[in-house]
Every structure is written in C-alpha cells, then in structure tokens.
Amino acid sequence: MLLNYNILLFLIIIKILYFLGTYNLYLKNGRNLFVAVIPIYNLIILIKILNRPIWWSILLYIPIIFFFIYPILGLDIIKIFEKCYY
Asked: What whole-number distance in Å separates Cα of residue 52 and Cα of residue 46?
C-alpha cells in the first residue's frame, strides 16, 4: 500500500516540475496558464506548438520510445524559442 502512495507522490512531483519548467513557454505562445496544468492536454498543446503530428503525444507514453521523443521535443523547443544553452 505504501508503494502505491510513493508512486503517486512521484508522479505529482514530476507534474509540478513539468509545470514549473514549461508554463512560461505556453504564456509566450499566447496560451492560458491552465493549459500547462492539465496533464495530457499540455503535451498535446506542446506538440501543436512545435508543429509535430498529434500522434507524437501518444508516443510519449510508450516506455522505450519515450527516451527518443523527449530529446527531439527539447531540441524543437530550443529551436522555436531561439535559445541555446551551451
């Protein structure tokens, strides 16, 4: 039973960190702030902002493919918002 609460707490922390990291991107694109809070909807909107097909949001929930898609999305975010940190 304790394991289930630990997983739930981990997911909540991950979602809060995602919100804190990306809410400014949604605001700069003219979206409302509540879009960054809704868990699955925010990824769909991010995919639309990055001009990628909507089915990419489904790929983000497949375990192995997840590791290949997120870096691509990160590079697209850097490219669209024209910031490079290196």
From this structure: 9
